[in-house]
Amino acid sequence: MIRRLAAEGLGTALLLISVIGSGIMGQTLADGNIAIALLANAIATGCMLYVIITTLGPISGAHFNPAVSLAFALRGELPWDEVPGYIIVQIVGGVLGVWATHLMFAQPVLQLSETMHRTGGAQWFSEFFATFGLLMVIFGGLRARPEAVPTLVALYITGAYWFTASTSFANPAVTVARGFSDTFAGINPAHIPAFIIAQLLAVGIGHWILRELFGRDQP
Length: 219
Description:
Helices cover 71% and strands 0% of the residues. With 219 residues, the protein is mainly α. It is globular and about 50 Å long. The protein has a single domain (2-214), classed as Glycerol uptake facilitator protein (Up-down Bundle). The longest helix has 29 residues, at 2-30. The chain has helices at residues 2-30, 34-60, 66-74, 83-104, 121-144, 149-163, 172-178, 192-214. Belongs to the MIP/aquaporin (TC 1.A.8) family. Its main location: membrane. One of its GO terms (cellular component) is membrane. It is a multi-pass membrane protein. Pfam families: MIP (PF00230).
């Protein structure tokens, strides 16, 4: 259990390092061109997802996301008594990853996002859609080609940065952690609760839809 929790915490920290770090670097080098900054953000995040899912997946299942952990618990593939531990280390790991990134870029470690406002119906629906799509990719991939799941998730999130209005957080731990960074990839803390509600709704609704879509029997 300790190894699994360590893998989840480390993986989530690395995920946030890729999100925040590429956001800072992209914004710095793009000289105000938001499209280029977002492209750098998306590519770096997708690359990191492929790496951490491939390397840490055999240890913990490579959730790095409370929504994914809850979805696996609903399917009976993660014991409910292990869910709180997974969620706690994912959130803590995410925040530590944000702070590590601030250190790397010589920024104040302790920040709150004040400039990045992400709110409104379009943003909330985007988070619902992005999270549902992520779960579909994971469970559909496990059904069809388990070895392809790292690639599928990396490609999906890279694309979802661009085809969702919210740039596809799709992860409560990532959402909380990004509230602690007043950078390109941040989110105003006041807007975090609505994002998380949308993500959790996607888990609940997605559980029933995906169970029927991919079959009730487990591969």
